[in-house]
Amino acid sequence: MNPPVAGSRTALAERIAAATAQLAAAGVASPRADAEQLAAFVLGLGRARLLLVDELPGPAAVRFDTLVRRRADREPLQHLTGVAGFRYLDLAVGPGVFVPRPETESVVGWAIDALRAATVATTAPGPVCVDLCAGSGAIALSLAGEIPGAQVHAVEGDPAALGWLRRNVRSTGLPVEVHAADVTAAPPSSLARLEGAVDLVVSNPPYLPDADRATVEPEVGVHDPAAALWGGPDGLQIVRAVVRLAARLLRPGGLLVVEHADGHGASAPALLRADGRWQDVADHPDLGGRDRFVTGRMARPGEGEHG
Q1: What is the average pLDDT across 94-105?
Q2: Cβ 279 vs Cβ 297: under 8 Å
Q3: How many other C-beta atoms lie within 10 A of the C-beta of residue 85?
Q4: What residues contact residue 64 under an 8 Å CB cut-off, 6+ apart?
Q5: What kind of fold does domain 90-298 have according to CATH?
Q6: Mean pLDDT of all residues in 148-165
Q7: Rounded to 5 degrees, what are φ and ψ at 52?
């Protein structure tokens, strides 16, 4: 795109069309939507209000062109705008934290529905929930915002991600307690009081197999933090740690929900069944129909594994 002359105005529809072509040529998966979102961002408008705008002022056009070039270089859209939408939340994101994806919304939706449908009493004043590998706080903050009275704890070990998590907790004002801890290490002392008393453990841990390093898109491999992506040779290294910690935290009958790679539809449930402490083990697809998360219930005394 040719840069506009300072102070000039550029037809918005033409600018978006040119940006769409540029992004499509660069291999961006949703070029039109991204171009429109960047235009809305530089104008300070919601995307739907672009229909009311005919021209892009010169300074905004210059900024728009710069952002389009960066997006064409496969910098994540959310890094350019500083915001990732997730369910009912707008979360601050940027370098150093995993950008939450739409498929994780189905994980949270299942967890919320399961808690609402639970017939057993939960700890007053509301269910106790723990989000392991919390990242930006997308899961923890959704639970806190959508489940009245929920006592939500977010556990994250990476210092950069912790900064984003704390920022989002502050900005939303939602009641989430943050714990700085590595789920693969010994349980942090701050979680000791929760052992055997948690109603729900949910996690979106690093789960990509190491063999995928050469095949992931640049938005993932270059810009998402490696600590949030890679789960060892089979992708289940951190999942195993999450399951071990969840077994210590959950009360009998408590629920576990863990997101996994779409190639783990058989191996993730098998991991829970082999552990021997889980009832009602099942795998679930995301909205795209791909195997996405496994669930289980902590066995009560005297219960055997019925899978």
Answers
A1: 96
A2: yes
A3: 14
A4: 15, 19, 38, 39, 42, 56
A5: Rossmann fold (3.40.50)
A6: 96
A7: -90, 0
